[in-house]
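In response to reviewer comment 3 from the previous cycle, which asked for concrete evidence that the modeling workflow produces usable outputs, we include below a single protein chain processed end to end. The sequence was submitted unchanged, and the resulting structure tokens are shown without manual editing.
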Amino acid sequence: MSHRGLISFLLLWGASTPVWAAGTARWAAGTTVAGEASGRVASVAARRFEATLDPFEEVPAISSDAQGWIVLEVEPGGDVLRYELRYEGLEGRVSQAHLHFGQAGVNGGVLAWLCGTADAPGPADTPDCPDGGGVVSGKLSAGEVTGATAQGVPPGGFQALLQALRAGLVYANVHSSAFPGGEARGQLRGPRQGAAR
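The workflow returned the following structure tokens.
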């Protein structure tokens, strides 16, 4: 079994890999990405979305050793998403990472930036993408939703982003200099939408 297959298998069956162990432990303990205790594992899980990022999920699929993981959690007020993105093994230099509006197998417009670089910094206050791989975290609210206007999501359309997440229509994508259209992609899924990919 390839490393991608093994990681997907472990995530599907709820086991943790060394890279993902901290996120899995936080979820099992009923805490949020930011580490705030919730004491209600069920409500945290119902507000949590995650994905494994894989080059084979790109459209069209690409061959690369890149891999990644992302977790998003809706804060209790329902107007902020906290996220943690981890990626490694990119064949090119990271250029940017986003949330996109689209179903599996289809490319869609950018909804929000997860991180940027000097060449593609993103909107104000966008975190820097770790060069060579690593972890980046942040928060998204209405002000960070750039929108996918050609698909009917206006800038600031935070509720539209949440609706798309809950419908399984948002994917995360890490872009690189080797693959500007994206090198590792994953469709975000909630607990009732099936296994994260």
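Strands lie at 48-53, 67-74, 81-88, 94-101, 109-116, 134-140, 170-176, 184-187. We consider this sufficient to address the reviewer's concern, and the full set will be provided in the supplementary archive.
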